[in-house]
Amino acid sequence: DVSDINCLRSIKDSLDDPHDRFKSTWNFNNNTEGFICLFKGVECWHGDENKILSINLSSMGLRGQFPRDINNCSLSGLTGLDLSNNELSGPIPSNISHMLPYLTSLKLSSNKFSAEIPVNLANCTFLNVLYLDHNQLIGQIPPELGFLARMKIFTVSDNLLYGPVPYFQNAFSSDSFTNNPGLCGKPLDPCESGSKPMDSFKNGFVVGYVIFSVSVITIFISYCVPWTQGKKKSEVPWQIMLNLILQGKNKRKQSQQVKEMPSVELLHEESKETSILVKLVSRLSYTEISEATNNFNEENIIGIGQMGTIYKAVLPNGWLLAVKRLHDTYLFDEHFITELKTLGRLRHENLVPLLGFCIQSKERLLVYKYMSKGSLCDWLHPEEGGARIMEWPLRVKIAIGAARGLVWLHQRCNFHVIHLDISSKCILLDENFVPKLSNFGEAMLLKSYSIDSTESFSINSEFWESSFAKEDVYCFGILLLELITREDPRSMTTYSDTSNETLNNWVTHLSTSSNFYSIVDKSLMGQGFDQEIFQFLKVALDCVQPYPDQRPTMLQLYKKLAAIGKRHGLSTDSEVLTHHGETSTLRRDECNEDEIIEV
Ligand SMILES: Nc1ncnc2c1ncn2[C@@H]1O[C@H](COP(=O)(O)OP(=O)(O)OP(=O)(O)O)[C@@H](O)[C@H]1O
């Protein structure tokens, strides 16, 4: 049958067979009936007829994606396909039932298949055996698979699945579902009330949010990964998944990584140091990023910072990203690495998610989630002619959220992060105006505990407390003043060589100003918030005290702001307040392995 021969041709073309385990036996220079039945892994209905019954290409070290043109095989009724124990990646085709309608056995175990299990599999109504275990499949098991009445063997263990196990007519043992981050329900532990997506709106929202976050990443992977080289191709999904989903389950030895960090001089495309960065953040394809930004088209520029130009990137499916393209490789390599080694491994609701990076010859790219409302600076100081209303409650929300992010950075277990560049420019706002700290290019990463005082990163916590962290507190104070006065502290430093002095003069002027009303943003006055604004001002002035030990810690500051913000329905953060206590550092045994890590 010609179609079966073409089917095999397309499979041969689409799979990468680096060890030549099957391709050399698939010789098409033969026209005798039944010649394909002698191909390795091919079984025919009858040995003298070119009609394929099943294909078994397991354990051959094959690479590539699920063979897309396999649908030619459907005419004769291919019933078995075994691609298990290879290195295949990418999604399982969403139209698999059209490709292989007569499948009775599908074995895809131990590969790197990602994305969701296609619902369409439920239309392969003859399926008896379905092995999808040991892959990187995400999302829920489509409940429709439960309708496959003939299914005798089914396993999805060791994937990234979550949500309820569907009801199957043939009950499968728990082994079929183990080692997934969030599967529940028979035969596993019962789902907590709410883990079924439809139980309530709230829970539906939570599941939806997870799906949304994972989908963004997955889609990004599926568009960007196929163009990356060699082994990297298969590593990317794991990096992202580990960062975003399994953080608690699969924590890295962060303190060790502090020591392993690459130095600037050694950073180039294929260096070992670059591969260390790959352990932290996904390495992405230059071609894909370039395409998503319309070849770094001027029209895609959304901002120009000191370190680089920010482009809006649109993936083919419409998802939005922000790409920072560094201006000068040599000057900014250090910032580049610092951003990756700090922000790259942190996930928190008040930090902008850094999704990936790219190093290609002189290009250095950082890829972030797109924050649709831009930076706080853009809102407080719009371009000439633009007027942006910022009500007081919104400013309170932003201040508290940003403080929350900073407390989290200062109080982390394992290592602390000091931002050292806090300003309204580094606070990005998502579509709900949730503030997200960005620009970690100058951040400092410090080990929380000096287990071994000879280690270069060990540092006396008292010294750390009084100098570095209080630097962030000072900058946060300036930020609060900016929120209250709507004056741009940068404008005070731009034209002056003695910038700090000018800034200090401004602060002194504000703190000594006898007339509170003269310094507050006029648009805020008389709205019923005057007393609150005054309380904020007092907190801000505490932060900008000349001596670091006179300033509050970030935690104390956060608590004060949160107490003021209560009136606006902004709940205090129990994780930060009760779990981390009053002190600036925690004893190691107080460290909770599951620190707040939010997508
Ligand atoms: N993830 C993002 N999503 C949406 N817009 C962003 C994002 N990151 C940056 N921007 C926009 O690009 C602008 C420039 O950002 P960028 O971080 O490069 O410069 P900056 O804040 O001026 O800092 P610096 O000068 O220190 O590099 C921001 O003000 C913001 O409007």
Mean pLDDT: 75
Low-confidence stretches: 194-266, 449-460, 493-498, 577-599
Number of extended strands:
22
Strand composition percent: 15-25%
Distance between the termini: 52 Å
Radius of gyration: 28 Å
The hetero molecules present are: adenosine-5'-triphosphate
Strand order of the largest sheet: 1-2-4-6-8-10
Shape descriptor? elongated
Largest sheet: 6 strands, mixed
Helix content: 25-40%
Q: SS-based structural class? A: alpha/beta
SS field, number of helical segments:
17
How would you concisely characterize the structure shown here?
The chain is 33% helix and 16% strand.
Account of the 3D structure:
Residues 296-564 form the Protein kinase domain. The chain is 33% helix and 16% strand. The chain is of the alpha/beta class. Strand 17 and strand 18 form a beta hairpin. It has 17 helices and 22 strands. Helix 15 (530-543) runs antiparallel to helix 16. It has helices at residues 2-14, 96-99, 201-224, 230-244, 254-260, 272-280, 286-292, 329-342, 376-380, 392-411, 461-485, 489-493, 499-512, 516-519, 530-543, 554-565, 574-579; strands at residues 42-44, 52-56, 63-65, 80-82, 87-91, 105-107, 112-116, 129-131, 136-139, 153-155, 160-164, 182-184, 282-283, 301-304, 308-314, 320-326, 354-360, 363-369, 415-418, 427-429, 435-437, 444-447. Residues 194-266, 449-460, 493-498 and 577-599 have low confidence and may be disordered. The relative contact order is 0.06. The strands form five sheets. The chain has a six-stranded mixed beta sheet, with no helix packed on it. A six-stranded parallel beta sheet has the order 3-5-7-9-11-12, with helices on one face. A six-stranded mixed beta sheet has the order 13-17-18-16-15-14, with helices on both faces. It is elongated and about 100 Å long.
